[in-house]
Amino acid sequence: MHPSLLLFIKLVLFTGFLSIVGWGLYKGYNAICPDGFNACFGLEDGPGSPVVGPSGSERVITTPPASRSINYSKCTRFFNEDDKTKTCYNPNAGTGGVGWFWSNTKDGVECKNLVTNYKIDVSSAESSHNVIRSHVLNKKNANGIIFNNARSWTIGPDGTKYNMLINVTPYDKDGKVLADPLMGEELNPLATGTDCGAIGVTPIDFFDSFKLPEAESKEPAPPPPVNCEGSYQPSTACVAGPYCGDMGLVTQKFVATKQPQHGGTSCPTNEKSVQCTRNQPCTEHPNPPAERPSCQYGAWQDETVASYLNVSELFPDKDPKDGTSKGGTDDRVCSKQWRDGENDLPGIRKQYRPITNVNFSRGQQTVGCVPQTNDTENTDDPLATERRFDCNENYYKPVNCTGAWTTGRTAHRDFREMLPGPGGSWADKRETTVYESWAAKKGFEFGKHGGDNSCPAHATERVKSRTVSNR
User: Fold this and answer.
1) Which of 129, 210, 335, 459 is least buried, going by the fewest C-beta atoms within 10 A?
2) Higher-scoring residue by pLDDT: 59, 401
3) Nearest to 251 by CA among 233, 267, 277
4) Distance between CA atoms of 385 and 354, rounded to whole angstroms?
5) What's the CA gap between 356 and 352, in Å, rounded?
């Protein structure tokens, strides 16, 4: 063979070898450094790699610099979607899932150990992926997620099966993004298997875990409650008999040093009477206590006159207190029908009894006998003829369920309809369905204390309207 021809053949073979090696190196570099040389080696914070969405349009992943972890440039290339055998989707059952992994390299393992939680965002083609639900997975070693009970998001009222997208973002302990999110992991009912076993995690309920974003409140958070503070102070002089040592009553009124605010415990409004003793100047009693008989009493009776309790109406006492002798009654004896809340004081019930062995009139301050105060409780009368109890202390004003139906997502279905009449022409139509969901009002609480408790479940959704128009 001619020497020049042999040289030419060698050059061709060597050039081909270099081309094959160069192509292999390029593919390897492109797989490791999808964001370019500078971003790959930490020389700049470039954007993430493009991902092709379900519509075929190219979508670029970007994480704002302020949201990035200091390890973002190092870690973003090691966070990857798992192979397709670790995705599952069954729209008829409302189940689906996806797996992910960190590259098994020294840097990849270090980045995985920096993870505190993953934020998973899901959307459905039913809403053109405009409505997004999110779930925070607080497991640093998680490598996948499976959800169930999402049928209202995966299949429409007419049986249409919708694709879903799952986006997964890892966060560090400071709440910063460690790597660009895996966006556009499409769950397609035609191309995704229904077996979730390969993902190997316990399923979670879709609507219990994936929440819609809450609208930011324009009102500041309410301040903490401030309770009433103060003490009872005498408002009258001691009203007692003329003799030294006579027992009497002094009226006390609550004097507040701090008024309640923002739902704090209210201040007492009632006055109370406490025992007092006549001191100097006074007259020595002609009959010392040792020479006076002990007072004898009649049976206790409930006070049924509202004015004696400084109220305009009395109510039955439905809540007898254990350890007392008052007992419950349907008679109107309590100053309150119920408590308005946990911080509201209970009602007051008063009972009285006569003294039977001496002349006695109700309201009298002194008598010719020695009061016996050891055979009663809760007495606020020096003659032991009156006593008070709390009443309806465990009865609260009924609270009804509060909330409202609010307009939510909108779904569209395009179809063709044959027009009536000759010719068999067709018209393009669009059916628009507007859904509404149950939303809690501010201060929402379920019904309690006998109030209406028929709140819809948090995931309840219903059709608000359905219209058909021409396209």
Assistant:
1) 459
2) 401
3) 233
4) 6
5) 13
pLDDT digits (tens, 9 = 90+) for 17-39: 777 777 667 666 555 554 455 44
Q: Is a pLDDT exceeding 60 seen at residue 301?
A: yes
Domains of the chain: 26-209 (2.60.40.10), 404-470 (no CATH)
| CA 36 – CA 225 distance, rounded (Å) | 56
Sequence length of the chain is: 471
Please state the pTM of the whole predicted model. Answer: 0.38
Over residues 69-105, the pLDDT tens digits come to: 999 888 888 887 766 556 788 877 788 888 888 888 8
Q: How many CB atoms within 10 Å of residue 442?
A: 8
Classify residue 77 by burial, with Cβ atoms within 10 Å: 0-12, 13-18, 19+.
buried
Contact indicator for 122, 133 with CB cutoff of 8 Å: yes
Mean pLDDT in residue range 131-156? 84
pLDDT at position 285? 67
Share of the chain above pLDDT 90, in %: 5
Residue 280: predicted pLDDT: 63
CA distances from 345 to 270, 331, 334, 385, 447 (A): 11, 21, 13, 25, 21
Distance between the two ends of the chain, CA-based, in angstroms? 76
pLDDT of residue 185: 58
